[in-house]
Each structure stands twice: as structure tokens, then as C-alpha cells.
Amino acid sequence: MLKVFEYRRQLKALKDEGTALLLKAEEEKRDMNAEEQKRFDAINSEMDSIEARMDQYIKVNRIPEEQLRAYEAHRPDPAPANAPGPFRSLGEQLLAVRDFYTGRNRDNRLFEVRAPSGANESSPTEGGFLVQQDFVTTLLTQTYDTNEIPRRCRRFPVSASSNSFSMNVIDETSRATGSRWGGIRVYRENEADSTTASKPKFGKLEMKLEKMMGLCYATDELMQDAAALGAVITQGFTEEFGFKLSDEIIRGTGVGQCLGILNSGSLVSVPKETGQVADTVVTENILKMWKSRQGRGLVWIYNQELEDQLETLTLSIGTGGVEMKLFQPPQGNQVFGTIKGAPAIPSEVASGPGDVGDIILADLQQYLLVDKGGLQMAESIHVMFTTDETTFRFIYRVNGQPMRKSKITPYKRTSSDFYVSPFVALAAR
Questions:
Q1: Which long-range contacts (CB under 8 A, 24 or more apart) does 384-388 make?
Q2: Which of 109, 235, 357, 410 is deepest in the core (most CB within 10 A)?
Q3: What's the pTM?
């Protein structure tokens, strides 16, 4: 059926060109010159040919005129000439995918963004069609931009020829002399007759790409409105992919998914205060978490249910009884409040009050996310056949873990159980 609208777009373009020739001559109060007349006659001849081919196509495919009118009423305008891909909207592409697999129409634009070589495009389970690249970019950009936790992480793409990621990182577990950078040491000239050679120690950070998958069920009624479908898909999947990534960054197991901060060997867990009431946060908790920090891009991530407690925390200044609030509300154009000058971000993926992870201090630039390509889309009319729904499947290959594998022993310390890390959490209360 989409072929009919291609014919109609061609006719409209020719009609507009012919009209422009007539209007130009009329405005200049003259007849068309020989060149203009020749082009005008060619336009009319070409339009007659297109109309004949379109009529034949409609007759051969037995498409009733009322169906054409109903279908056209829900079609978006064609993509502009400078559009980054063949489809104007995600909804338009999803509609074309549905029509292809149901045998209603073969839209050749799909094959401009088809699955990689070797995949079977005739079977949704063996490749299907790729989401047009600009839609992929929009989906992934919004996934990261609208979710503060993934957005602040360090992100690396994996090349098309690889399904895993490997990177050398400094294996540093202590800041003691001889251990910094895993073993580098320097000397003053008079400290030793012969300077001992030293070198950094490296560890391997390795990750295999894992699939993150989402399904969308679209009713036949919704399928008729390509613009609405694209909006629903874009908002729904960007938010859900972002939520899933955020949750895994916090508590992922590392098995078939990201390794979360709370399950990492680099986590510093600050114990509760003696006699501290369950499910509470007190000033001493915040100060001890801050003391264990390492990193410059620090943010607080907390369960919003704790906000009333955080806003009442104070710190005594001097001996005059002056108290300063630890939690400062947003100022000016700030989106988030601050604690000790670092952004404080409420997040629904933070643990419930009293559980480990209800408040976290993290330098998310030291959390690494790796991904490959964009979203791959496949479609089926069989999964939800009984409810007249079309199923779209999206797959995003991504993994992540902290760049440090262990917490760090400071250069000088008094307590043997004091460590620093880019990731600090308050223990259960």
C-alpha cells in the first residue's frame, strides 16, 4: 500500500513544479517560453504515466479506495530531502515493519536500514530490521540524558568486530609508599646509593557485552497512528532502558548484567552509629561517608523518602552554637540540592530507608559502561495474535562495572579499618 503513496508523492511534486512554471509566467505577464513549455509538456506526460501505473497497482492488489483514504489520513508527511534516514519518524518505520511481515506491503526503505549481513531478514527471530540510525541515536541519547545515573558514568563503544571489552587499568589497592600506581616509587638522589627500579602494576578490566531486551505490544488501532506510536515508543523505551541501567549500576549482580556498585569489591561501607535508630540518617553518617570519598565528580544518590531527614541534618560551627545545614536546597538554576557541596540526586533505584544503598556517595566517572551499536528491532504478529496486537522487540547490548576492583588503603591512617573509594555507602540500620 505504501507504493500508492509513493506514486501520489511523485504526482504532487510534479504538480507543484508545473504550477510554479505557470505562476512565474503569469506574474511576469507573458506566455511560457519554449524551454518552459517543453518542461511543462514533459510534466504532464510524466503525470499521465504515473497515474496509469498507480491505477494498475491498485487494481492488481485489489485495494479499495475507502481503505486508501483511511490509511492516508493517518500517514505522516514524507521525510524531507535532507532527512538523516529514509523514515521521518520511528512510528512510520514500525508501521512499515508491520506491513512487511504481515504481507501487506514491502517498503524498500526498510532495506536501507536492514539487519547486518548474515542475518535472516525474512524471520524476525534471526535479525529483523535495525532501527534507523537517527532514531537509535535519539533513543539512546534520551536514555542517558533523562537518567542521571547512566548519564554521569564513563561510556565506551565497542567496535563492530568485537563482542567484549578489555582495558588495562592501574592495579592500585594502597597509597602506601611503594604501592601507588601499583608499585611506582621515586627517590631523592641521596636516599640510596643506587635507585631501585619500579614500575606500575596493571590489571585487566574485562567485560562481555550482555543483551538488554524490551518488548512493545501495539494494538492495530495504535498502529494506524504512526506519529503517536513513535512518541509512545520513544518515551517509554528511553525511560525503561534508563531505569534498568540505573538499577543495575547500583545493584547489578555482574552475571548476565552490569556489576553494581553495591556488589563491587571497591565499595566502602560506613557502619551505623552506636544506638542509631533504625531507618535513620544522622549527621555522623554523612561526615564519615564524606571522609571516605575519593574522586572529583562526586554525587550523592539517595532514596527520596529520606529527604525530610536530610533536610534537618546540621553541623555545629565553632563554639558559638551556630549550626549549618548539611543539605542545601537547589539555588538559582540548579536542578539538585547539595550535601557538602556535591549534588544530591533523589533516585527511585536507591534502596529503601535503612537498607544498604539508601544513600550512596559516588564518583560515577569511575564507573564504566560499554555498549555496541544501537538498538536492534524485530517484529512478530504471532506472539499476541489472539489480542490483535503486534509485538516489537528491542535489544541493546551493554555492560558495566566499576573501574576499580578494590577499595584503597590511605597513605597514612590511624584506624586499620579506614579505607577510601569512589563508591561509599551507608551500612544497614
A1: 384/217, 387/217, 387/219, 388/219, 388/220
A2: 357
A3: 0.66
